[in-house]
Design brief:
Chain A has 6 helices and 12 strands. Chain A has 237 residues and is of the alpha/beta class. A 6-stranded mixed sheet of chain A has the order 1-4-5-6-3-2. Chain A has a 6-stranded parallel sheet with strand order 9-8-7-11-10-12. In chain A, β10, α4 and β11 form a beta-alpha-beta unit.
Chain lengths: 237, 237
Amino acid sequence: MQRYFAKQKIDNQLILNEEDIYHIKTVMRMDEHDKIQVVYGTKVYLCCLENVNTNIQIMVEKELEVKENRMPKITLLIPLLKEQKMDLILQKATELGVNKIIPIETERSIIKRKEEKEDKKLERWKRICKEASEQSYRIDIPEILPIQNPKNMKMLEGLSLICSTAETQRNIRFVLNSNTTCDRINIAIGPEGGFSPLEEKKWNELGFISVSLGNRIMRVETVPMYILSVLNFYYME
Amino acid sequence: MQRYFAKQKIDNQLILNEEDIYHIKTVMRMDEHDKIQVVYGTKVYLCCLENVNTNIQIMVEKELEVKENRMPKITLLIPLLKEQKMDLILQKATELGVNKIIPIETERSIIKRKEEKEDKKLERWKRICKEASEQSYRIDIPEILPIQNPKNMKMLEGLSLICSTAETQRNIRFVLNSNTTCDRINIAIGPEGGFSPLEEKKWNELGFISVSLGNRIMRVETVPMYILSVLNFYYME
C-alpha cells in the first residue's frame, strides 16, 4: 500500500501536498475508496480516498500500530559528491534509517560549493529523502541541513566518529562495544581520497573519534550503507 | 595505484589482457617506468611498465604482502533484476567481499529469462565484477554462475540462509551467533515482493534457513549490501 506524509490534519481528514495528490490521481491512477497509508506527526493512519475525481478527500479509517525502533539517532556527515552518488547515498541512507544528514565541505572533494545553486540542491535532496521515506514506510523524514564548513561547526551531542584510513587499531566494532549506552551517533565520512591529516585532526578536536571500518577498500558511496547496515544489525532486538 | 589481474606470468613478466593494456595506455595514459599492482594467482606484485610506447612489458619489481581475511566464503543467490539494479549489486557485492554469485529464477521477478541473451549477460556481469575487484584491491574476482532454477539445485555446502519477510522470530544476528564456526555462508535474496510461500518452502527443503533482517523495509538492491556489510562487521578482527 502506498504511503504518504501529510502536511495537516483537520478533524478526520488528512491534507497532502499537491505533488502527492498528483501522484495519487495521475501516476497511481487510484480509484474511489482506494486505501493509502498517511503519516502525520508520529502517527500512521489507514485512509480511504473519497471524491477522487473532483475535490479529493483523504479520510482516516483507523490509526495503525507503529513499531518502535531502539537504534540511536544517527547523523551522517557526508562530503559533496557527484549528483548520482549523492542521490544514491540519500536514498539508501533513508532506507536504512538515518535521522539527519549534514553535507560538509572537505579539502579533497572534487565538487566545489556553488552558493547560488545550494538552495536548489537542498530542495532536490529533501525530495529524494521524502520519497525514500515513503517507499521504505518510515514514519519520519531525515532532516538535511545546508552545507556546512567544519571550521564553523561546534561539537555535536552524542558519540561522534570519523571514518579514518589512517587509524589501524581502533575499529568500529570496538568503539560500539565501548559505548553501549549512547542514544545519538554522528559519523563523518570523507571524500574520494579521504580526509587530509589536518582535517582529521580538526575533526578530532571537535570530539570525533577516528575509527577504522576494517580492511576493505570501499567507494565513498558504499561507506554510508555499510555503516547504517552495521548499526541496524548492532541494535537489532 | 591502479590494480589489474594478470592472465599469465612468464618468468619476471606478467601478461594482461588487451582491454587492460588499452586501459593503461589510452585511458590512464601511463608513462615509461610507471608502477602498477598486478594480481596473479593468490599473489600481488608491484610492477614497472617498460616499452610503454612500443610493445609494453609489465615487469615484476617485488611481491607485496597480502592481508588475510577470515570472513567465511560468501555466496549470494540473487533474483533477476533490471540491469541498473543488477549492476549496482554486482559492483557493491564485489567491493564488500562476496565470493560467488548465483543468479536465480524466482516466481515474482519481473525480469524473465531469455536464454539466447544469457551468455552476453554473463559476460557483462563478469566484467563488472572484474573491474570492481581491481578498484577495491581484491586479490580474487567473484565467480558468477549461469542463471539457475532452484528446482534443479542441490544442497550447498555450509550455512544456508534465505531472507524471509514471513519469518518474524529468527533474525540474522541470532543465526550468526548460533553458527560461529561455519566457513561458508550462502544467502538467497528474493525479488521485489519477496519469495512466494511455496518457493520459500522449496528453499527450506534445500537446507536454507528462513531469517529476518529486522524491521526495515529495504529495496531489493539494498539487501545484498546490508548482508555483506553485516558479515564484514561480524567477522572483523
